[in-house]
Design a protein that fits this description.
The complex is a heterodimer of chains A (669) and B (681).
Chain A (H helix, E strand, L loop, with lengths): L17 H11 L6 E2 L5 H7 L12 E12 L5 E11 L11 E4 L5 E9 L5 E3 L6 E4 L8 E2 L2 E4 L10 E9 L6 E5 L6 E9 L5 E7 L7 E4 L2 E5 L23 E7 L11 H12 L7 H11 L5 H15 L1 E2 L2 E2 L10 H7 L1 E2 L1 H14 L4 E6 L17 E8 L11 E3 L5 E5 L19 E5 L5 E4 L9 E10 L5 E10 L4 H8 L3 H13 L5 E9 L8 E9 L4 E3 L2 E4 L20 E2 L4 E10 L4 E5 L4 E4 L3 E10 L2 E10 L3 E2 L4 H16 L2 E5 L2
Parallel strand pairs in A: 2-12, 8-18, 17-19, 26-33
Antiparallel strand pairs in A: 1-6, 2-3, 3-10, 4-9, 5-6, 5-10, 7-9, 11-16, 12-15, 13-16, 14-15, 20-21, 20-24, 21-23, 22-23, 24-25, 26-27, 27-29, 28-29, 30-31, 31-39, 32-38, 33-37, 34-39, 35-36, 36-37
Helix pairs in contact in A: 4-7, 5-7, 6-7
Chain B lengths: L2 E2 L3 E4 L31 H5 L11 E11 L4 E10 L9 E9 L11 E11 L5 E3 L5 E8 L2 E9 L8 E10 L8 E3 L5 E10 L15 E9 L5 E4 L6 E10 L17 E7 L4 H19 L4 H10 L6 H14 L1 E2 H4 L13 H7 L1 E2 L1 H14 L3 E7 L19 E8 L2 E5 L19 E6 L2 E6 L9 E10 L4 E11 L1 H12 L2 H13 L6 E9 L8 E10 L2 E2 L3 E5 L20 E2 L4 E11 L3 E5 L4 E5 L3 E10 L2 E10 L3 E2 L4 H15 L2 E6 L12
Parallel strand pairs in B: 3-12, 17-18, 24-31
Antiparallel strand pairs in B: 1-13, 2-13, 3-4, 4-10, 5-9, 6-7, 6-10, 8-9, 11-16, 12-15, 13-16, 14-15, 19-20, 19-22, 20-21, 22-23, 24-25, 25-27, 26-27, 28-29, 29-37, 30-36, 31-35, 32-37, 33-34, 34-35
Classes of the chains: A alpha+beta (669), B alpha+beta (681).
Chain lengths: 669, 681
């Protein structure tokens, strides 16, 4: 439900938003005449005609020039001027050549110009009225956002073609920070960032995924950084890949001076204090909020029970629904308004939760996070992020085995991290894509960077059990129960809730169809669909003709009847971290009654492998005429360094081999 | 459930799709508010928790009403939805779109629309009513110099599972426009009841060609027993059209569906200057044909190019082949370029296509026909639908159905169809998207409906051959060769055109990786014939890795390599729509595994053959030898369309085939004979 949300809304040129443009643009399409022009600026031509080094074969497009000039006025308001030139190398690079700049009333776009040079060298200058303006399409609950984008589809976007744009934009008045992204999925040739400050202003820089570089002093408080020939981070063919955002190099400039109320001094504490000033007053409880909170905790004395009751209410009863206007992209709505309308976005839900907790004597804060694990980088204090969750203070001395996503601050306070927007993660835990990542606890002068804990595998588990009987003709029938708890149940719950019961059946048939060719399911029973603190239970009867295959006197069957834990890996050298997505515990226990007239001739060898970050064990044994297959898979980490890739490959091979293993039955003579 | 699908045309006193020729006077005051009040929920509606027959449905439309009033220049819509699950709460978020021309932020321009008078409320299961009192937000979705698409957005308050949400609004148009309604009756949700009304204008109208409008036509696709009701307005002021529907199921979405998406329940009205379907298609066909012929007009450039192309050809067929080759040698920009809007309008004739050396699919087809005519061959164009999207229904009076064009050439009294707009389609064949469909063709002196031809399975052939060697350690090396002709070859050729060599290699590798066991690594070693449309497309791979599952004293290997990862094609027990397999084809596989000392064949699947008489045929055989085994598989589908009632038989057939595909060859691991080791003592 959560869709690219709130804490910061930056202007990232060339963000691909073209689908929406095409979808809606067709309504407006008409014959357009582009100006054939000799007015393409010299800086575009110069960039276009530069000699390129040998590029990797998979390069789709290359950034020839990316120039940022960031000028802070005496009143602290900043303006950024950007020049960007992209060359399309392969047909797939066309998407990289669609200029798009976001703006709103607080980040006004003062000018934007677009040019292009087609592969034959013909030059084009787009007129102002040929640029489109796009609004947020309003999907996934983001119904209203006053941000708009100026967008262009310049002609000549074919391999060999060049697209250039230039714009000038006011920066938000309440964000005294500039972010320079100088690495992405394209090679980047010539890049610079120039900072101009007025008298009395100072600055500091922080860096993510790059060693700090001292800017050249151009005098008169002008400073310049250059980053030329940056290589691309191409993750397209990388399995188990981390978020590209977590690897890309960037620089953050923090500046301070007269008129800027909240100097952040390039610290995480400063970032938290900045957001605290925006959000704190919004979390004031109203009488209605207090009444509801008291109603929810009525009769409860335990901290966990109280916090759970209120959190469940905000998680389940407040609809995710985004309305952002100006600073509203960063600032929550008032808790009273959120409660009254029963809707809000992530920062609104976290704010209402904080207000409700406060109204009954508990304490909650906001935590600024990003759903791309690793994007928030400890080395680079910044307001960057796309999501807000809640931190519920755990009373001193209180302990409960049900508190899992608990962090301890530098001052010794403990907080339970909880995301009221993520509707399918049980209270006490936090969703898997935030685990192992960093966030900013927003608590006034106590604000600080925290690391969100990785959950125990036992909290994210799947347990399959089944009893089957096999006939001599190879057909199999039986009953299977699938129990899921934690985020691993999330997809199933969403699938089951989508459309109607027919879709549910269809989904399960497709899952079974991965492992059996001629399968039919019946008596499907799903329990605890909405009860996220309970196991999601799916029980069904299964019948598969020709499950076991007869080859001569042999009858062979796969004891691992349904379900897979196989990891998708490749055989290439690994250069980037491995993202395993989630910790988990999987356990399968299958009994298969064997047909009369056959004896077991061969069983798969037992498997027991421990890689530290994961263990896998499996065994197939015979008790009388019953075959028993048992396996347990435990995954304990969400990310691993590249050096561990050989172990991941080995783990994948072990699982794959076990899942394909066969029991050989032989006809009795 | 059956559908009626014939267009109905009746005379009317005069209506228009286009601008009204007279300035119309708005009836004083706003549209009637008499029906604005919301319905009182019944106890059954409040207590409702599910839809019979659709367990788990997220929401249900209790009632929908749409009233189009031309003389009021408005459409009034009313939605009444019961929320049944958490997922259903999404229907409380409402976005209503309208179009506005530029420069008319405050004024209501001649082409503008506006969404007005939004009212809404939420009713809880206990009957509590929470009115929507907020103000809808207005946002711009797209803005260009031609205009902008706006949306009014709002969310209904305090919605919970069990709530009934309802809202109504007016969509208004300028005085210069009237609307012929499009009633899309079937959608994502079950509809218990809906009521549609249209009050057409009684003013005199003309169409975009300045022809007087004298009829209203409609294309109904409705459940049995449902029909449009027409009521005469007293005083000879035209008619009112009305439709009541009940219990409309949600749209069906199944794998291998025929192109059904254009054929959900609906009624599409149109003002028309034509009195009959025949009149419509005759006039529209004539207009299209005239424009096409103008584009194909003969001149010196065309003549010179044609003469050069057919130089040395002795027979009409040879001439046509050479013309086809010439057209195929030109760049088809539909595959290679972004839409080249900078030069729109500069391509007025086929000579322009020739001089540029490139053109769109349509332009290249026109060029082919023009050159064939220049060469003295009777040649025609034919408009077709894209069968992957829709089929042609003549009773729906809309040229929008016919988006593609093919060529028909008469050689020695026999007409053959060609597809020069599908680059690298083999001579004398069509892309599958154009096979077996109805369309509109040129004939001498006019146009007529026609049916396209189609290939048999032999024209669409894929062969997949793996030749592998396994050493004593179980390591596999070898080659895999894929050969494609027909539809599959054309698909890959278009992938090549749209991308580049690298992307083609990547996609061909991924395609094979997804088919064979993951324990094998493949690398594309060569691709030939990507631009030779009369030759098979050949792809070769180098293969390394391991194959099969070791059980201790045995190695169990897949009998067919290329179906190792296949999943059940038809898993559902019941089917609601027909099955469309797109095109007939034959797939032939061969797997040869040579094995080293240390392995011995213990058992292999028995040879089998299955068939759906006259429709599909499957066979698999294994030839074994102490040192190798060879598996041969052939799967032919001769028919492509299976009715719903034939589904069980089809499903069983596929289950048989796919089960057979999963059978194994069993190798026994035998102790190696003692060998003399060198070195050491």
């Amino acid at each position: 439900m959560r869709q690219g949300v709130t804490a910061f809304r930056g202007t990232l040129p060339f963000v691909v938003f073209w689908r929406a443009a095409l979808m809606l643009g067709c309504v407006l399409s008409s014959v357009r005449a582009y100006a054939f022009s000799d007015s393409v600026p010299d800086w575009v031509r110069e960039a276009a005609h530069q000699t390129l080094p040998a590029l990797p074969a998979n390069t789709k497009a290359v950034v020839l020039l990316d120039e940022h000039t960031y000028t802070v006025g005496v009143d602290g308001r900043a303006t950024e001027h950007v020049r960007n030139v992209v060359k399309i190398v392969r047909p797939q690079g066309r998407e990289a050549a669609l200029p798009l700049v976001w703006f709103d009333k607080d980040s006004k776009l003062l000018s934007m110009h677009v040019w292009s040079i087609d592969p034959a060298g013909k030059e084009y200058a787009m007129k102002d009225n040929q640029l489109l303006e796009l609004g947020h399409p309003g999907e996934g609950g983001e119904l209203y956002d006053d941000q708009k984008a100026r967008y262009a589809e310049p002609p000549g976007r074919d391999p060999g073609g060049v697209v250039a744009y230039e714009y000038e934009q006011r920066q938000r008045p309440y964000v005294a920070e500039a972010n320079w992204f100088f690495q992405d999925d394209m090679p980047r040739m010539r890049q610079s960032f120039t900072l101009t400050l007025p008298p009395g202003f100072s600055y500091s820089t922080s860096w993510a995924n790059h060693d700090p570089v001292q800017g050249a002093d151009l005098e008169d408080r002008r400073y310049r950084w250059e980053m030329n020939n940056e290589s691309a981070i191409d993750l397209e063919q990388v399995p188990l890949r981390p978020a590209g955002e977590s690897l890309s190099a960037r620089m953050t400039v923090h500046y301070a001076g007269p008129g800027l109320a909240e100097p952040r001094e390039g610290t995480w504490q400063g970032v938290g204090q900045w957001y605290d000033a925006l959000a704190r007053e919004r979390a004031q409880p109203t009488p209605e909020i207090t009444a509801k909170a008291q109603e929810l905790i009525a009769g409860k004395t335990d901290f966990y029970d109280k916090a759970e009751a209120i959190s469940d209410f905000v998680q389940q009863k407040i609809r995710y629904f985004v309305i952002e206007v100006g600073i509203g992209g960063n600032q929550p709505h008032f808790a009273g308004d959120i409660f009254k309308g029963r809707y809000g976005d992530c920062k609104d839900k976290a704010t209402l939760l904080s207000a409700m907790l406060a109204s009954v004597g508990l304490h909650g804060d906001l935590v600024m996070v990003d759903s791309h694990r690793g994007f928030i980088n400890p080395d680079d204090p910044s307001v960057l992020g796309n999501h807000v969750v809640a931190a519920i203070e755990v009373p001193a001395g209180y302990n409960s085995p049900k508190l899992h996503s608990v962090i301890t601050t530098s001052s010794g306070k403990r907080y339970l991290i909880f995301d009221p927007t993520w509707e399918k993660t049980p209270f006490g835990q936090v969703e898997n894509d935030l685990q192992g990542s960093y966030g900013v606890l927003v608590e006034g002068s106590q604000s600080q960077l925290i690391r969100i804990p990785v959950m125990s595998p036992e909290l994210n588990r799947v347990r399959r059990s089944a009893t089957f009987s096999l006939n001599a003709d190879g057909s199999l029938k039986g009953t299977m129960t699938d129990l899921r708890f934690g985020d691993i149940a999330d997809r199933r719950r969403r699938e089951y809730m989508r459309d109607d019961g027919k879709h549910q059946e269809e989904f399960l048939r497709k899952v079974a169809g991965q492992d059996m060719m001629a399968v039919s399911l019946s008596n499907i029973k799903v329990a605890n669909l909405d009860a996220i603190s309970e196991d999601l239970s799916t029980r069904f009867d299964v019948q598969a003709s020709h499950y076991a295959t007869a080859t001569g006197p042999l009858l062979m069957l796969r004891p691992r009847v349904l379900g897979s834990y196989e990891l998708g890996v490749d055989r290439k050298p690994r250069k980037v971290n491995i993202d395993l997505y989630e910790t988990m515990l999987g356990n399968d226990e299958f009994d298969i009654e064997l047909p009369e007239g056959y004896v077991v001739d061969e069983l798969p060898d037992p498997v027991k492998e421990d890689f530290g970050f994961a263990t896998y064990q499996s065994s197939t044994v015979v008790h009388g005429r019953t075959l028993h297959y048992s396996r347990t898979y435990t995954l304990r980490e969400v990310t691993l360094p590249p050096a561990k890739y050989a172990d991941v490959q080995r783990l994948s091979a072990v699982i794959g081999a076990d899942e394909a293993s066969q029991v050989v039955l032989k006809k009795q003579q | 459930m059956t559908r009626k699908n014939s267009a109905v045309v009746v005379s009317a006193s005069g209506k228009t799709l286009a601008a009204i020729s007279l300035a119309l006077t708005m009836v004083a005051g706003s549209a009637s508010r008499a029906s604005d009040t919301f319905q009182k929920p019944t106890p059954e509606e409040l207590a409702m928790t599910s839809v019979p027959g659709f367990p788990g449905a997220s929401a249900v439309v209790l009632f929908r009403e749409e009233t189009t009033n031309d003389d009021m220049h408005s459409i009034q819509r009313y939605e009444r939805i019961k929320i049944l699950t958490e997922e259903g709460k999404q229907y409380a978020n409402v976005e209503l779109r309208a179009y506005r021309t530029s420069g008319n932020d405050s004024d209501f321009g001649s082409n503008d629309e506006a969404v007005q008078d939004i009212q809404g409320r939420t009713i809880h299961p206990d009957g509590t009513i929470i009115p929507f009192t907020g103000k809808p937000y207005e946002k711009t979705l797209v803005k260009s110099k031609e205009g902008k698409v706006l949306a009014k957005v709002f969310t209904l308050p305090d919605v919970e599972v069990g709530s009934i949400i309802e809202y109504r609004y007016f969509k208004r148009f300028s005085d210069a426009w009237v609307e012929d309604p499009q009633w899309y009756i079937q959608g994502d949700l079950y509809v218990k009841a809906a009521h549609y009304v249209w009050h057409p204008t009684s003013h005199d109208l003309v169409d975009s060609e300045e022809r007087p409008i004298n009829s209203i036509a409609w294309f109904p696709l409705l459940p049995n027993g449902t029909s449009i009701k027409r009521t005469e307005v007293p005083g000879g002021r035209g008619q009112i059209y009305e439709l009541n529907v009940k219990d409309i199921p949600p749209t069906v979405n199944e794998d291998y569906m025929p192109p059904m998406k254009s054929y959900t329940y609906r009624v599409l009205f149109s003002f028309t200057a034509f009195r009959t379907q025949e009149e419509f298609w005759k006039a529209q066909g004539k207009q299209w044909s005239k424009r096409a012929d103008a584009f194909m007009k003969q001149n010196g450039d065309l003549k010179t190019a044609t003469e050069a192309a057919i130089s040395g050809a002795a027979t009409p067929e040879e001439k046509l082949k050479k013309i086809y080759a010439k057209v195929m040698s030109l760049e088809n920009t539909d595959y290679t370029r972004e839409r080249d809007r900078t030069e729109t309008g500069k391509v007025a004739t086929v000579s322009d296509v020739l001089s540029r050396g490139r053109g769109s699919s349509t332009q290249l087809t026109y060029l082919f026909v023009a050159m064939a005519r220049e060469a003295g061959l009777k040649s025609y164009l034919m408009l077709t639908p894209d069968r992957s999207e829709n089929v042609f229904v003549p009773s729906w009076m809309s040229m929008e159905q016919l988006g593609d064009v093919i060529a028909i050439v008469n050689i020695d009294g026999k007409e053959t169809m060609y597809d020069p707009g599908s680059r690298y389609c083999a001579f004398g064949h069509l892309a599958w998207q154009h096979m077996f469909v109805g369309g509109l063709r040129q004939i001498d002196g006019g146009t007529a409906f026609a049916q396209t031809s189609g290939d048999g399975y032999a024209a669409n052939r894929s062969t997949r051959v793996a030749n592998l060697t396994m050493d004593e350690h179980g390591q596999i090396t070898g080659k895999i060769d894929l050969n494609f002709t027909g539809a599959e070859a054309l698909r890959w050729r278009h992938v090549a055109l749209r991308g580049d060599e690298q992307s083609l290699k990547d996609q061909l590798r991924e395609m094979l990786e997804n088919r064979i066991p993951h324990s094998l690594e493949v690398k594309v070693s060569s691709i030939t014939g990507a631009d030779q449309y009369e030759q098979p497309l050949k792809v070769s791979y180098d293969v390394t890795g391991t194959l099969g599952t070791a059980t201790g004293k045995r190695l169990v290997m897949p009998a067919d390599l290329f179906e190792s990862n296949s999943v059940a094609t038809f898993s559902q027990d019941k089917r609601e729509t027909a099955v469309d397999l797109h095109y007939p084809q034959v797939i032939q596989d061969a797997l040869r595994v040579n094995f080293a000392n240390g392995f011995e064949l213990e058992a292999a699947p028995k040879n089998d053959q299955y068939q759906l008489p006259k429709r599909a045929l499957y066979s698999e055989s294994v030839e074994s030898n102490p040192k190798y085994f060879v598996t041969r598989r052939a799967f032919t589908t001769g028919e492509i369309l299976f009715e719903q009632k034939e589904y069980p038989e089809l499903k069983n057939f596929y289950a048989q085939v796919q089960t057979k595909d999963k059978e194994s060859v069993v190798l026994k691991v035998v102790p190696m004979a003692a060998t003399t080791q060198n070195g050491g003592n």
